[in-house]
Structure formats: C-alpha cells, structure tokens
Amino acid sequence: MRNEMTIEFLSVSENESLARVAVASFVSQINPTMEELTDIKTVVSEAVTNAIIHGYQEKVDQKVRLMCSIDGGEIEITIQDEGEGIEDVEMAREPLYTSKPEWERSGMGFTIMENFMDHVEITSGPGEGTTIHMKKQLTSTKALCN
Hints:
Heat Shock Protein 90, 5-stranded antiparallel β-sheet
C-alpha cells in the first residue's frame, strides 16, 4: 500500500530538526532498522540544510517543501527549494566541493546522500531552485515485498 505526506516550512535552520523528525515518524510505520532510520534522518538533514544555506542564502522568509512516500518497503524523499539553484550539479556532487568555504562547510552533503540512499537525482539550475529526489529500499522490508 502506498502512503505519502507533504510538509512545507520556512527556511529557518531550526526547521531542519522538524524535517528529520517528521520523516522519521512517517517512515517508522514500516519498522525500519535503526541504521536505516539514522541514514534517512541524515540525508533529510543534509538536503534541508543545503536548501536553507545554499538555496536561500539563509533568507528566513522562503519555503522548503518536503515530500515523502512509502510504497511497500521503498521510501521516496523529495526536498525542493525555489532558491538560487546550482550552476554545475556535477561539480557540486564532488566530495569536498562547497560553494561556501568561508562558512566552514564540509562539502560532503551530496556524497552522504549518495552513500546512504539507493538513488539520488538532483535537478537544478541558476535561478531555478533545486529538487533532490532520493529513493531507498529498506532491507528490513525486502522480504515482505518479494
């Protein structure tokens, strides 16, 4: 059975924890392992933080949209902003790349997302905002889906 949720919140850094908790609560209905839950919370945190810091340049009056769905044991998470966008997505995906070195950013956000999820798709362009779409098949539910 498919289930989904969508939330929208202001681009305030405190809302990163709201996004983590909302997705963790939603996903917990299919009983993920603690490791899977931690991975999911981490990628949500990275994506939302990127939207706030890079997409909106910490302008607190903008909106971040988070969509999450469950279909069998597969989780899909989409995080969207309508901010500045990314000029070169492939370069941004490189480990240690950051557009904010003066803010002591690690440049590992996309690398973390790609390591913790089965599929990561980034759609962006200058002035177009950014959409990050991620998928993960939970190992705890693979047997249930086959």
